Amino acid sequence: MMDDSIFVAGHRGLVGSAVVRQLQRLGHGHIITALRPQLDLTEPSDVEAFFETHKPAQVVLAAAKVGGILANAERPAEFIRDNLAIQNNVIDACHRHGVRKLVFLGSSCIYPKFAPQPIPESALLTGALEPTNEAYAIAKIAGIKMCAAYNRQHGTNFLSLMPTNLYGPGDNYDPRGSHVLPALIRRAHEARMTGQSELVVWGSGTPRRELMHADDLASACVFALQRLNARDIGECINVGTGIDLTIREIAETVMHAVGYSGRIVFDTSKPDGTPRKVLDVSALRALGWTARIALPAGIPSAYEDFLARHAAAPTATHNT
Ligand code: GDP
């Protein structure tokens, strides 16, 4: 595997950049990446030309249109369109160009809103989805089913990994588009800098979320590239820490890491989303992989990245 060429699609994002860092740390010599102007993954002809030129042996599909609860609720058309297009193009190209292994990345929001907790892989398609991110989830479910169908019909080795909520360097800090952890890092930092006495947290504070550092997911991707095969797992396999906290506890952990000690107030005009989301990670654990980075240990690298990229310009909101 270490000699194979690996195309990391989405290498500038939270996940893709962590996968590239991990492969570089392991001394991998042939990592292929492409920037948006060279390769628009939603364009079939771009993807075809890219695979024809580079002929990657393995592919990690970490490119996706992602966003927090508000972005998903406000722009569902973009989330379903772009993600279906990217997957469709890349999965099919992997088959036609004989890619030896594809790691496709989904998300824990593919599972029903009221799935059993912790959520086993078998919960897929057993109930209605959380409405706030249904469009994104449907696209990701289509990706899982597409990989499974190609494996069945064409004998490919396409693996679908379902990570829990992620954070880390390279995250999106757009106040309206980001997920909870980067949003709270930004607000706690700005509250500290401007001497505010209160930190606003959306919703009721009672939903529970599992958060995993992107470096842990990158380590799982490399584990999958080296050690997993589609025939050894079901249609998808969960990647998480198996540990969840309430939004209030997450906010308190962020405040501690950022050095802010104001009072938490809840903005209940904002949605709570699904009440609990923690993955059953026993399948991947049984195969030999576990997450290593606990939340308090993982936040500092995310905060440092925020300070380096965003703190000097608090009004900048765009991040790709
Ligand atoms: P989800 O896991 O798909 O629901 O996505 P998010 O990470 O965006 O939200 C997780 C939970 O954090 C929800 O219950 C939100 O209401 C809550 N939350 C609290 N404060 C914030 C915030 O500032 N931004 C976001 N995105 N969520 C927040």
**Radius of gyration (Å):** 19 Å
Number of helices: 10
Q: What proportion strand?
A: 5-15%
The overall pLDDT average reads 94
Structural class: alpha/beta
SSE layout and pairing:
Layout: E1 6-9, H1 14-25, E2 31-32, H2 44-54, E3 58-61, H3 69-74, H4 76-96, E4 101-105, H5 134-154, E5 158-163, E6 165-167, H6 180-193, E7 198-202, E8 208-209, E9 211-213, H7 214-227, E10 237-239, E11 245-246, H8 247-258, E12 263-267, E13 276-277, H9 282-287, H10 295-309
Parallel strand pairs: 1-2, 1-3, 3-4, 4-5, 5-10, 6-9, 7-12, 8-13
Antiparallel strand pairs: 8-11
Helix pairs in contact: 1-7, 2-4, 4-5, 6-8, 8-10
The structure holds guanosine-5'-diphosphate.
Please characterize this protein's 3D structure.
- The structure is a single chain.
- The chain is an alpha/beta fold and 320 residues long.
- The chain contains ten helices and 13 strands.
- The strands form four sheets. The protein has a six-stranded parallel beta sheet with strand order 2-1-3-4-5-10, with helices on both faces. Strands 11-8-13 form a three-stranded mixed beta sheet. It has a two-stranded parallel sheet with strand order 6-9.
- Strand 4, helix 5 and strand 5 form a beta-alpha-beta unit.
- Helix 1 (14-25) packs across helix 7, helix 4 packs parallel to helix 5 (134-154) and helix 6 (180-193) packs across helix 8 (247-258).
- The radius of gyration is 19 Å and the shape is globular.
- Guanosine-5'-diphosphate (GDP) is lined by residues 68-69, 109, 133, 165, 178-180, 183-184, 201-203, 207, 209, 247, 270-273.
